[in-house]
Structure formats: C-alpha cells, structure tokens
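Researcher: Structure prediction, please.
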Amino acid sequence: MRVIGIDCGGEYTGFGVVEESESGVLTCVDVGAIKLSPREPLETRLNTIFKRLCATIETHRPDVVAIEDVFYAANAKSALKLGHIRGVAMLAAAHCGLAVAAYAPLAIKSAVVGYGKAEKFQVQVMVARLLRLDAPPEPADAADALAIAICHIHTAATLLRQHATVR
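Model: Predicted structure follows.
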C-alpha cells in the first residue's frame, strides 16, 4: 500500500508519501512542504497547492490520500483559510481519481506516538523512528503529513484484520 498524507496549513502544506511492503516495513518515498507566501492572493496560493499536490500524486501514484479531519479553531478566519486548503487537497485527490480518508488529530497522534495529545516534536521523532530516517522531517508540517499517512496504513491494516475475523 502506498499512501500520500497531506497536512493542510496556511504557511506550509506538508506532504508525505509512505509505502508499506508486504512484510509490513514502512518506507518514506517522498516528503516535503509547499511554502506559501502570505503576500500572494489566496487564489494563487490555492492554485500552487493544487498543482504541486497533483504533480506529487502523479509522480508517486499512491493508492489513497489521507488528510487531517476538520477541527475546531478559536480563530474563524484561520479555520476558513484552512478549510479552503483542505478543500483544494481533496480536489487534487479527486482530480487524480483517488479516495480521501480523513483522521482526527488525536487519532493520528495515537497511531504514531501512542498518545493523542503528543507534542509536535514527539510526532517528528516517532515518524523518524518508524520510517528509519536519519533525522526528524522538517518542517513539522512534513512530519505531520507522514504521520497522517502512517495513521492510514495502520488503520487500514486494523480494519482489514477485523473484517477478516468477522467472516
């Protein structure tokens, strides 16, 4: 299974492609972040995200896109901007013919760190360990994208096992 995780953000939108081998070994195929300039109009930033995500999806051909689920923010303006970016990430997935799986932040942290209220640096360190990377991914948004992909891989494996036992 190959999954692209996308961490939607106003300054950086992180992406990480993770592949699970048949033996269950996780490998980081690609990781990065799309840096956005606050000086550019919102529609230009959204177009940049769309094009870069589509190009990454076309290059790596993942099976599914995983993103962070909607969350509540104290600042309505920030939440709305994040909603735009999240919508563009979902559009890029649909444009490339892929399904989207969404996970709550607590579920992502639990799947990677084992604790739903883990700090960002803990997520970065555990992602590096799980993927056998030399250093934690930077920026944190890139590590979060890898964590989202890892969460999907773990969740899909659990659901597959549960489905197998129900039969």
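Model: The helical segments are 42-60, 76-95, 105-112, 120-130, 140-166.
Researcher: Thanks, that helps.
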